[in-house]
Amino acid sequence: MTQKVSITVTVNGAAETAEVEPRLLLADFLRENLDLTGTHVGCEHGICGACTVLMNGDSVRSCLTFAVQADGARIETVESLGSIDALGPLQEAFRENHALQCGFCTPGMLMTATDMLRKYPLETDDDIRDGLSGNICRCTGYQNIVAAVRSAADKRDGK
Amino acid sequence: MEEAIAALASSGGDAKVLAGGQSLVPMLNFRVVDAPLFVDINGIEGLDGIEETEDGGLRIGALARHFVLETSAAVKDRFPVLHDAMKHVAHLAIRNRGTIGGSLSHADPAAELPMMAVLLEAKIIAAGAAGERMIPAGDFFTAPLTTVLAPDEIVVAVEFPGLSPGTGWGFEEFAQRRGDFAVAGVAALVPADGGAPEDVRIGLMGLHDTPVRARSAEAAFLDGGIEAAVKAVRQDTDPMNDLHGSADYRRHLAGVLTRRVLTAAVERVGR
């Protein structure tokens, strides 16, 4: 039996302390320990992007990060972006552009897009496609997701 | 660092170093790798810097993340070929975590950074129980996912010697999707007038068991120009068949990409 480790992680602004096994993935910590099931687990090997969250502001695969590595870190999940009654601006852009169908990939798309919008100029739609290339969607054909991120980028740039 | 090396040495060779975790953790999730001990080096201070060296090169700490390399002004200024290659490394969330030391230690033959290290004649500095040693990148990779590192050694930094001023460069890779591992990739450096002609360099990835220099194509380019180099690459490349492409397809691709990178490099000479 592996010894448990005490960690304190700030998740969506709230400090969470827990005793976890070192092998526990951040994705499972968020979903199982904290009941934050907005973070989805798809492929569990870093390909599909559904589990993407922000760690200290940077998008990371929560299936490729151990919970113990988030000790002392700031984690933001899709739950931080808004609520059903008060969507955040990026969520609103997804809604307006019909950028989701089944919604499984959407939390990862939103967290990836959040990081992209902070880090890259996204001058062309090809830049947006490059940025989203690590997130797989099997419903939409991506067109409306690109349109939603374009709309969010234009708003960011005051266009 | 001493503590990390001691932990590795104490495990009898079975411990694994955890840096960015972007290759190791998928293998753990698949249960294709297991180890009694994982040594997480992310907390070691001073391993993530990018320093300019006096010869016009760079010394990059092992924990420098791919995103930092991608956006570093020093990398763009001194090694535009490396700056360009970084755009092809996986996806933003992977680049935020993945490290140069991890990529080199993982030694995927289709990955960008191992090939860049070979192309740029980097020196890989590893620390172990016996002290530090410097390993030329050309001697570092021995087989797919295999390096000369001893079980108790950790890559601490990578030194890229400066290029002669005005060196032209080109980088191209072909992947199924942006950010995927390359089916094949080629990079070239062509020195400016006054540079040493023997310093024409062509690097190949995804075409052999390790990243390699295409020595016969470099010589052919000096003798007969771009088309001679294309022919030499196709003649002397012996790629594998897999579901992403047949050996013949890869050999064809190697030639096409060689033509493109040499054309780009020649155009950029002196700029």
Features:
heterodimer; A: alpha+beta; Ubiquitin-like (UB roll); DNA polymerase, domain 1; five-stranded mixed β-sheet; B: 271 residues; alpha+beta; Uridine Diphospho-n-acetylenolpyruvylglucosamine Reductase, domain 3; Enolase-like, domain 1; four-stranded antiparallel β-sheet; 13 strands
Number of domains of chain B: 2
Radius of gyration of chain B: 18 Å
Ranges of chain A where pLDDT stays below 50 over 5 or more residues in a row are: none
Helix % of chain B is 25-40%
- Strand fraction of chain B equals 15-25%
The overall average pLDDT of chain B, rounded, is 95
Q: What share of residues of chain A is helical?
A: 25-40%
Task: Please tell me about this protein's structure.
The complex is a heterodimer of chains A (159) and B (271). Helix content of chain A is 33%, strand content 16%. Chain A is an alpha+beta fold and 159 residues long. Chain A has a five-stranded mixed β-sheet, with helices on both faces. In chain A, a hairpin with a 2-residue loop joins β3 and β4 (58-61). Chain B folds into two domains: 2-160, Uridine Diphospho-n-acetylenolpyruvylglucosamine Reductase, domain 3; 168-268, Enolase-like, domain 1 (2-Layer Sandwich), CATH 3.30.390.50. In chain B, strands 3-4-9-5-6 form a five-stranded antiparallel β-sheet. In chain B, α10 runs antiparallel to α11. The termini of chain B are far apart. The mean pLDDT of chain B is 95. At the A-B interface, β4, α3 and α4 of A face α2 and α6 of B.
Offer a concise description of the structure:
The complex is a heterodimer of chains A (159) and B (271). By secondary structure, chain A is of the alpha+beta class.
Topology:
The complex is a heterodimer of chains A (159) and B (271).
Chain A: E1 5-11, E2 14-20, H1 26-33, E3 52-55, E4 58-61, E5 74-76, H2 89-96, H3 106-119, H4 125-132, H5 143-156
Parallel strand pairs in A: 1-5
Antiparallel strand pairs in A: 1-2, 3-4, 3-5
Helix pairs in contact in A: 2-5, 4-5
Chain B: H1 2-10, E1 16-18, H2 24-29, E2 38-40, E3 50-52, E4 58-61, H3 66-71, H4 73-78, H5 80-86, H6 92-95, H7 100-106, H8 112-119, E5 123-128, E6 131-136, H9 137-140, E7 141-143, E8 146-147, E9 154-160, E10 168-174, E11 184-190, E12 201-205, E13 212-213, H10 215-236, H11 247-268
Parallel strand pairs in B: 1-2
Antiparallel strand pairs in B: 3-4, 4-9, 5-6, 5-9, 7-8, 10-11, 11-12, 12-13
Helix pairs in contact in B: 10-11
